[in-house]
């Protein structure tokens, strides 16, 4: 009887690395650009509405925090209503 080693038991097929979806990757810079552009529009409005009691950096931070909160809400609704995709 032939003795089997670990090398003899390995399949001889060539493995390929899984390909990634290249369409998703370029969207991230576009999303970041859009969020920063919208924040540049909304931050002066927030700054003016607070009657200049806040600093400009606080207004920008509030806008970014609002966008992050909105993105999390949308993501969590998607996870709750379509869990089979995750």
Automatic annotation (TrEMBL):
Matches recorded under InterPro entries: KdpF
GO cellular component: plasma membrane
Statement: the UniProt record of this protein carries the keyword Transmembrane helix: yes
Assigned keywords, A-Z: Membrane, Transmembrane, Transmembrane helix
Coiled coil: none
Top-level taxon of origin: Bacteria
GO MF entries: P-type potassium transmembrane transporter activity
Transmembrane parts of this sequence: 28-47, 59-81
Protein name: Potassium-transporting ATPase subunit F
Protein source organism: Chroococcidiopsis cubana SAG 39.79
Lineage: Bacteria, Bacillati, Cyanobacteriota, Cyanophyceae, Chroococcidiopsidales
């Amino acid at each position: 009887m032939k003795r089997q080693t670990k090398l003899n038991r390995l399949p001889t097929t060539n493995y390929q690395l899984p390909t990634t979806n290249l369409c998703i990757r370029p969207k991230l810079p576009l999303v970041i650009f859009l969020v920063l552009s919208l924040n540049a529009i909304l931050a002066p409005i927030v700054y003016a509405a607070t009657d200049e009691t806040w600093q400009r950096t606080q207004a920008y931070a509030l806008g970014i925090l609002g966008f992050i909160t909105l993105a999390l809400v949308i993501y969590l609704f998607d996870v709750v209503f379509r869990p089979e995709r995750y």
